[in-house]
């Protein structure tokens, strides 16, 4: 190759990077070395084999769906946790940081610190935030549960809480679980401080107290999407029938509800995919979105913490794959969220006393398991909606 070509190459580089030495000042041998290096970079970068691995987040963006996870603000200072979170997800939800027992440890004070930390991380990494949750029978502070409040006092407390929390996060939290797990296994309102112990004034009137909470929530932040979130109602059963009837009635009477969250904590390595798809479809038919909100698939463990069967990882991956495929193929399902993303931090071990675990797509060292690879492959296929 001629010196003239090397000199021309040097002039191109000097225009692209002003700090690059001009042709007349850079030794010819150096320019030749740089030319060969630059040519190698061009060839390698253009090679189909030299492409960074596709993340869940980028695949979800291409598929037009949100892929999320529940997070713990205390772990955001861990580099591997934060880096993986920002790379793999376009939606996050705090596990506990926006619940009553964290936000209001005393009646007259609000602590938004942990929740704000989650929101700051999300904003810095262009990630959407789901809020969880404004009304739940559990995880309430002792001052509330043992305060002997009257229904009128509880109603005022709940209304002010919804307004204060939602307005604090207005424009930052795009969707809220207004109410969480309010129905029992038969689809009846669950006994709770908000319903009938003593309740906010609607004891014995079914889901009327939930209706009131949704109306307050819409008034507090008209832009936020409002969800009802429930466990064990993902298939076709009494509870899912009750959720469907409640949403249908809410929509008929103008109660502001925008979506239903289906948790999907799966503990038996068994999922009726047809039932899940049918349930999502009928809910979407009412004009609401469906989010998969708390997906995990726990596996049985030996006393030493090892898997009972290595084949369970394959079965686990199949379930994750089926859930993602069903969401992508069913109109109205707009988000898929796991309850945590690494086995290093999961509620399964403590709740099962070590009998179950390894429930999440990444292992304890943040390496992808077959489940993660299955999710990615389904996201890469994109949406193919059923008619």
Short description:
This protein has helices at residues 3-16, 28-46, 56-63, 79-88, 100-103, 113-124, 142-145, 151-168, 208-220, 238-252, 273-284, 311-329, 348-351, 370-381; strands at 66-71, 91-94, 128-136, 175-180, 225-230, 259-262, 265-266, 289-297, 299-300, 333-338, 356-357. The protein is α/β, with parallel strands linked by helices and 387 residues long.
Structural class assignment: alpha/beta
The major β-sheet equals: 8 strands, parallel, barrel
Q: Report the end-to-end length measured between terminal Cα atoms.
A: 61 Å
The CATH superfamily of the largest domain bears the name: Glycosidases
Rg for CA atoms? 26 Å
Contiguous low-pLDDT stretches (5 residues minimum) are: 15-24, 35-52
Which of globular, elongated, flat, extended, rod-shaped describes the shape? globular
H/E series, N to C?
Answer: HHHEHEHHEHHEHEHEEHEEHEHEH
Stated plainly, the CATH topology of the largest domain is called: TIM Barrel
The average pLDDT is 90
Largest beta sheet: strand ordering: 1-2-3-4-5-6-8-10
**Helix fraction by DSSP (H/I, runs of at least 4):** 40-55%
What is the name of the CATH class of the largest domain?
Alpha Beta
Instruction: Return the CATH architecture of the largest domain.
Output: Alpha-Beta Barrel
- The total beta strand count reads 11
Whole-number total of structural domains: 2
């Amino acid at each position: 190759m001629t010196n003239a070509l090397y000199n021309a190459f040097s002039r191109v580089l000097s225009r692209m990077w002003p700090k690059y030495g001009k042709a007349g000042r850079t030794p010819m041998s150096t320019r030749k070395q740089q030319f060969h290096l630059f040519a190698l970079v061009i060839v390698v970068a253009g090679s189909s084999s030299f492409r960074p691995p596709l993340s869940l987040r980028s695949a979800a963006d291409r598929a037009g769906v949100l892929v999320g996870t529940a997070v713990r603000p205390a772990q955001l200072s861990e580099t591997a946790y934060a880096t993986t979170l920002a790379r793999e997800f376009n939606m996050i939800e705090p596990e506990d940081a926006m619940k009553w027992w964290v936000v209001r440890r005393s009646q007259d004070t609000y602590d938004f610190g942990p929740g704000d930390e989650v929101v700051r991380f999300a904003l810095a990494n262009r990630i959407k935030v789901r809020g969880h949750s404004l009304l739940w029978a559990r995880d309430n502070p002792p001052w509330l549960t043992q305060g002997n409040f009257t229904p009128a006092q509880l109603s005022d407390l709940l209304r002010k809480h919804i307004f204060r929390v939602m307005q604090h996060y207005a424009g930052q939290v795009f969707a809220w679980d207004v109410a969480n797990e309010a129905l029992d296994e038969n689809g009846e309102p669950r006994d709770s401080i908000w319903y009938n112990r003593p309740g906010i004034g609607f004891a014995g009137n079914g889901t009327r107290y939930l209706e009131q909470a949704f109306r307050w929530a819409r008034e507090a932040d008209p832009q936020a999407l409002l969800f009802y979130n429930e466990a064990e109602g993902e298939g076709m059963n009494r509870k899912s029938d009750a959720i469907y009837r409640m949403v249908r009635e809410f929509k008929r009477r103008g109660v502001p509800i925008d979506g239903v969250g289906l948790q999907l904590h799966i503990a038996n390595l068994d999922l009726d995919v047809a039932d899940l798809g049918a349930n999502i479809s009928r809910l979407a038919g009412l004009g609401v979105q469906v989010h998969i909100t708390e997906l995990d698939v726990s596996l049985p463990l030996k006393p030493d913490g090892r898997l009972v069967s290595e084949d369970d990882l394959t079965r686990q991956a199949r379930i994750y794959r089926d859930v993602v495929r069903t969401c992508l193929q069913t109109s109205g399902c707009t988000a898929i969220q796991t309850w945590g993303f690494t086995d290093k931090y999961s509620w399964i071990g403590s709740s099962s006393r070590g009998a179950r675990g390894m429930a999440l797509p990444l292992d304890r060292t943040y390496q992808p398991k077959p489940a993660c690879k299955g999710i990615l492959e389904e996201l890469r296929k994109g949406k193919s909606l059923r008619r």
